[in-house]
Write the structure tokens for this entry.
Amino acid sequence: FFSRGWWCPKEQRYLRGLVALQDEFEVAYSKLVVVSVDPPETQAAFRAGLGARFTFLSDAERHYLDELDLRGTTHPVHDPYRPACFTLFPDLRVHGEYNGYWFWGRPTHEELRRDMRAITMAIRPDWDISSGKLS
């Protein structure tokens, strides 16, 4: 998830929802990662306040905003990422992408579950129990 930062009420609300999903991701051998331009110490405080156990990555120097074409244009003070979500295969190929610029464009918990199910089905040869390839 590319996040505007701790200061944005929309980000605070959405990330609280991700905290509610972290147990499911952990038992399903999946990972959540948040990237923002917040400095590491600010991210650490925000992460702790949320109760998040997943990874927060800092691009405080803004090295990747333009390279990823995710520079937000509506907040010149913070110069943040445009909110976006990508669901990835283990080899980091993109499975799904969501435009989080407008809050309703962010993936719901159910959409994340569906994406994770599709990815797991594609990479696990023992997914289909009728195939006789259970291990």
User: Anything to note?
Assistant: The CA atoms of residues 12 and 104 lie 15 Å apart.
